[in-house]
Amino acid sequence: MTASQPQPANSPAASARADVVVVGAGFAGMYLLHRLREQGFSVRVFEQGGDVGGTWYWNRYPGARCDVESMQYSYSFSDELQQQWDWSERYAPQPEILAYASHVADRFGLRRDIQFNTRVDSAVFDEAASEWTVTTSDGATVTARYVVLATGCLSNARMPEIDGLDQFKGQVYHTGHWPHEPVDFTGLRVGVIGTGSSAIQSVPIIAEQASRLTVFQRTANFSVPARNAQLTAEERQAFRDNYPEIRRRAREEMRNGIVQPLPDRGALDDTEEARREKYLARWTSGGLTYMGVYNNLILDKAANDTAADFVRDKIAEIVQDPRVAKLLQPDNHPIGSKRICVDTDYYATFNRPNVELVDIRANPIERILPDGVRTTGQDYKLDALVFATGFDAMTGSVAKIEIVGRGGKTLNQKWAAGPRTYLGLMSEGFPNLFLITGPGSPSVLSNMIVSIEQHVDWITDCLSYMRERGLDCMEATRPAEDKWVAHVNEAAQGTLYPQANSWYMGANVPGKPQIFMPYIGGVGAYRQICNDVATKGYEGFAMSAAVSAERKAAAS
Ligand code: FAD
Ligand code: NAP
Prior knowledge:
Layout: H1 12-16, E1 17-23, H2 27-38, E2 43-46, H3 55-58, H4 79-84, H5 94-107, E3 114-115, E4 120-126, E5 131-136, E6 141-149, E7 171-174, E8 189-193, H6 197-209, E9 212-217, E10 223-225, H7 233-252, H8 272-285, H9 301-318, H10 322-328, E11 341-343, H11 346-349, E12 355-359, E13 365-369, E14 372-375, E15 378-381, E16 384-387, H12 396-399, E17 402-404, H13 411-414, E18 433-435, H14 448-468, E19 473-476, H15 478-493, H16 523-535, E20 541-544, H17 549-555
Parallel strand pairs: 1-2, 1-6, 2-3, 4-17, 6-18, 7-16, 8-9, 8-16, 9-12, 10-11
Antiparallel strand pairs: 4-5, 5-6, 13-14, 14-15, 19-20
Helix pairs in contact: 2-14, 9-10, 14-16
NADP nicotinamide-adenine-dinucleotide phosphate binds near residues 199, 201 and 218.
């Protein structure tokens, strides 16, 4: 393969051929573009949205912010960037994270190689030429040696099919596809369907505006306080002074890529009093690290119950109406087996006189009416409906692309019973096609930017390795993939995760195969495995010089 100089994205020459096509311009696609260009590869990035930022471009709902602290939920690849960017709050709000993405795009000149408002519809592998033909929503095609799917794990917003929705006369929103113009609920009767992280962040804000807010809850979720606050200059500086060590620890020592005190024991090794003190300390300091108090909370149900009981007790303390408190107390899954939510005043919002919680597990939604929602036994009059119903996670955006690999087989056919990858990076039968944070990698179980940077670095190094050796075709082998899939499944089975109907399992999408998709081994162990594979000449991958020199000359 010959690496060519970067070309402006919209020139005719650039539209026909590139070394690498990248799908998606969220944090993954952006960093990948930067790294590949540094290595001298020509790159075309396609993004269906109107600008960079991915998640933070689409999820503009009230209250949207990160749940990993911003000083850690940020790129580490440029020291100047991390020294110079000022995060205002412990958990930056969505507009600030989007502004950060935009700043990164400006700083590294990324937009010139990104074609926005353009969806990738198909990618077809030509076995003889060992390259992909990518077709986009504007009808253009691009050929590329490599395609990288940086399509995001939570980028395919899911609207449930509920009878009557098309007849609703009010405004309909989805948190994951929020309008760019401000939405004002002042004086309106608003219904929110769903009680996952997106609802838990937006409900307290919507409740302040709406004349009446009705929250339709199917499954109660565990949430812990964020304790969000302005960051002081001293707090920022403490991170900046120690960034090399903090980033190293996040990558190597932390299972989820978030630096935190590590537990030295299991929950049942402490007395009840000591346990409650420790849970209270984490509840008081706030954030996702609540699940890090003990080392067996996601392994042992009895241990897990102690952490879950603490949160259930807190809900009962905060929520004044015991019937509502009871409904808000999760009772059908271990804490942490669905992603734990991080909130600001979520439970207290149910003490407001204008907020009502409706149990749609007991009384399901029957249909949407032109002016509201009908559950079994009751109608609720509404002016606006907010769907906080989540995503077809991890595989949803990949499945929307017609990806045709060796022998005319599509990726959707191959993944019909659930996704199969080697290391979450490639799938056998689909040479030269990479995934970022794909199923089978730590991905959504981690600080995603840590995982994104690791995948991007690994893929970039790999492509450079191939170029140096005159190789141009790479594919996961079947035995390596089978072994990895078995390992990923086995790792999940040893935990409490499969006990929840979560999106990690595909359980939120009717008909989707139920398989625990991310790899639970932790980012440090996983990174080591990926590094070892590379050191051993990309063990488990077949690499070849598939295209003769004459064909290459003819193609260039
Ligand atoms: P995305 O940001 O999803 O970007 C993928 C892009 O690909 C999208 O812009 C999409 O439009 C584009 N795309 C997809 N298919 C196509 C196609 N066929 N053609 C063209 N373009 C396409 N993670 C954390 O670690 N910490 C957090 O605090 C956190 N908070 C979150 C809050 C919300 C509301 C959500 C939804 C997710 C959150 N996440 C968080 C996960 C978040 O998705 C990742 O942290 C990260 O932003 C993912 O980056 P990405 O580039 O991989 O994917
Ligand atoms: P989610 O966690 O999947 O929650 C979706 C909610 O909608 C659930 O309560 C679900 O109920 C409900 N629902 C789905 N279909 C329904 C239907 N047909 N009828 C009634 N209720 C229905 O989605 P999300 O809240 O958007 O969060 C997804 C992920 O994005 C999070 O887990 C997190 O990783 C990320 N995120 C992070 C933050 C943050 O704090 N930084 C914020 C938002 C999102 P069931 O549980 O019964 O299916």
